[in-house]
Specification:
This is Right handed beta helix region. By secondary structure, this protein is of the alpha/beta class. The protein folds into three domains: 2-90, Type 1 dockerin domain, CATH 1.10.1330; 162-315 and 385-497, Pectate Lyase C-like (3 Solenoid), CATH 2.160.20.10; 316-381, no CATH class. The protein has helices spanning 2-17, 45-56, 63-69, 79-90, 109-121, 167-170, 316-319, 321-325, 335-343, 347-352, 375-381, 475-497, and strands at 103-106, 125-129, 133-135, 140-142, 149-153, 163-165, 185-187, 192-195, 198-200, 207-210, 218-225, 232-235, 242-249, 264-266, 274-277, 280-282, 289-290, 301-305, 308-310, 362-366, 369-372, 389-390, 401-405, 408-410, 415-418, 425-434, 438-441, 446-456. The strands form four sheets. Strands 13-15-18-23-26-24-19-16 form an eight-stranded parallel β-barrel. The two termini are 35 Å apart.
Length: 510
């Protein structure tokens, strides 16, 4: 069967050579085209040939090339991937098409809530969300046990994904403390899948998985951004949840002056078996990942693989100053920027003309009363931390296990990998940290593995258990690492800003 497949693939490739030349569209230089296996900016016969040679064993595709070649995401590169590229070139198919015939299609918030109730009563099923922006005026609550419900965003023809926009829900909670009832998507049940959706601007967490009944849920290929607490939280006994290819950025709790809003927050007694794979967290107001625990409420087991975080806890991101200094456009999706614009109608105009001036009056209510949002006062009152992976708290004991593999952290003003006064048992394999104040701050940990651990350009010396050390790469490797990381970050940012969920992108530096 394997040889037959190879022969069929070879035959089809030669047939296709006579049928197709190249696609009629070119790629933006900063965005990789779907099906662009050779990464040359076009989809053409050479992408088909690259797959053919891989099938025949002449060459081997790896990394992003392999990901691009697996066009139907079935973890197998074969004739069906060749056929998908052929259809793309000939314009006979939308490369992002999802077959929705086996489920319920919804296009509104009310339709989504009704479908969840109906599908849950019928014992499970698929709900497909279509559209560009779905205005959500309240919470999406998922509480069924063994629900077997999948909520799947259907990609649009331009490659963008549906946005669940909770800004109208959030408008009632500005200048107020928020809680579980203000979470955007709240899962207290089991066996739910959330896929292909952008969750933004919730009054609290974007997604929360909470409670001892909240298990075996999957969040895949999603973005959580601009929420008023952590992008995604797992807590209070929630167990065996898989978080894969989720991108969490620019979440900020304005009311708490930047505190609490991590990219990912598996904390306060999250249950066992929760895993993060291929997830990225950046420019959130608190930490990248935070597994903070209180006394007798411990998070015993967490796994991180192929994950990365950068530049979390930077107060200047949320006033717009960070983007201004980089020459980037004003991000009006940030809640603080939105409030500043409402106070000062000239702020955005001056920003665009090259002048950054914040209002100096006290006009935004926070947990510390009102604060004057000049650059100095915002920074001096800021409550967010600036850590990458935070692994617990002073209550976290050696019975709590953290498994970290192929993970990257950089650009934090505090720690890259941080014990936060915890005493975890941890395993580190193939990790990289650079440009953090402390790259590795894990002195009390009990290490069961510490293999191929690299770090450079930390402003303070690493704090490690006795007998362990971090390898400093050569100058050449450092330069190559920076270049690869920068290119990958740029790709991720460009796609996310365009409402394109990046999918399974990896840094490939380990």
């Amino acid at each position: 069967m394997k040889n037959l497949r190879k022969i069929l693939s070879l035959f089809m490739a030669f047939v296709l050579v006579s049928m197709v030349t190249q696609s009629t569209f070119a790629a933006d230089s900063s965005i990789r085209l779907t099906y662009d296996v050779t990464n040359d900016g076009i989809v053409d016969i050479f992408d088909i040939l690259a797959i053919q040679y891989h099938i025949l064993g002449t060459t081997t595709l790896s990394g992003d090339n392999q990901i691009a070649a697996d066009t139907n995401n079935d973890n197998n590169i074969d004739i069906f991937d060749i056929l998908n590229i052929q259809r793309s070139i000939l314009g006979t198919t939308n490369t992002n098409t999802i077959d929705t015939s086996d489920g319920t299609i919804v296009t509104s918030y009310s339709g989504l809530l009704a479908a969840v109730t109906r599908v849950q009563q019928s014992g499970g099923g698929k709900i497909y969300v279509e559209g560009t922006t779905i205005s959500c005026t309240g919470q999406i609550s998922l509480s069924g046990l063994n629900s077997n419900i999948s909520i799947i965003g259907v990609p649009n023809s331009d490659g963008t994904y549906p946005v669940l926009d909770f800004s109208s829900f959030r408008s009632s909670y500005i200048d107020k403390a928020s809680s579980d009832s203000q979470v955007g998507v709240r899962i207290t049940g089991s066996n739910y899948t959330i896929k292909n959706l952008i969750i933004e601007k919730a009054p609290d967490n974007g997604i929360q998985i909470k409670g001892t009944a909240a298990g075996n849920n999957t969040i895949y290929n999603c973005i959580t951004r601009y929420n008023n607490d952590a992008g995604l939280q797992i807590t209070s006994g929630a167990y065996s949840n898989t978080i894969k290819s989720v991108y969490s950025y620019r979440n900020c709790d304005v009311y708490t002056l930047g505190g609490n809003a991590d990219g990912f927050a598996p904390k306060l007694g999250a249950g066992i078996g929760n895993t993060f794979y291929g997830c990225y967290s950046w420019e959130n107001s608190d930490d990248g990942w935070d597994s903070y625990d209180n006394k007798d409420v411990l998070t015993y087991d967490l796994s991180y693989e192929q994950c990365a975080c950068w530049n979390n806890g930077d107060p200047t991101v949320f006033t717009g100053l960070y983007d201004f200094n980089k020459g980037a456009a004003l991000d009006s999706n940030l809640l603080l920027v939105e409030l500043i614009n409402a106070k000062d109608s000239t702020f955005a105009t001056l920003y665009a003309s090259g002048t950054f001036t914040l209002p100096t009056s006290s006009f935004i209510v926070t947990s510390a009363s009102t604060v004057a949002y000049s650059p100095a006062s915002w920074v001096s009152n800021y409550k967010g931390n600036s850590n990458g992976f935070k692994f617990g708290s002073t209550y976290t004991t050696s019975s709590c296990v953290r498994t970290i593999k192929n993970c990257l952290t950089f650009g934090h003003k505090s720690k890259g990998f941080d014990n936060n006064n915890s005493a975890c048992t941890a395993s580190f394999t193939n990790c990289v940290a650079f440009d953090n104040a402390y790259n590795y701050n894990i002195l009390p940990f009990t290490l069961t593995a510490f293999s191929n651990i690299r770090g450079f350009s930390g402003s303070s010396a690493d704090k490690l258990p006795s007998g362990y050390s971090v390898t400093a790469p050569t100058t050449t490797v450092q330069s190559t690492t920076r270049s690869t990381v920068t290119a990958t970050v740029n790709t991720i940012n460009t796609k996310c800003k365009s409402n394109i969920i990046p999918g399974e992108i990896y840094f490939n530096i380990y």
